[in-house]
Amino acid sequence: MTKVVGIKFKNGGKLYYFTPKTGEVYQRNMPVIVETSRGVEYAWVAHPEREIEDSEIVSPLKPILRIATQKDTEKYQEYEAKKPEAIRICKEKILARELEMKLVDCEFSFDSGKLTFFFTSESRVDFRELVKDLASAFHTRIDLRQVGIRDETKYLGGIAPCGRVCCCAGNMPEFKKVSVKMAKAQNLSLNPSKISGLCGRLMCCLGYEVDYYVEAGKQLPKVGAEVGTPEGKAIVASLNMLKMEVRVKIDDKNGGWIYKDYPASELRFKKPCQQCQNAQTQGDDEEDIAED
Question: What is the C-alpha to C-alpha distance for residues 27 and 44, in angstroms, rounded to an integer?
Answer without folding.
Answer: 9
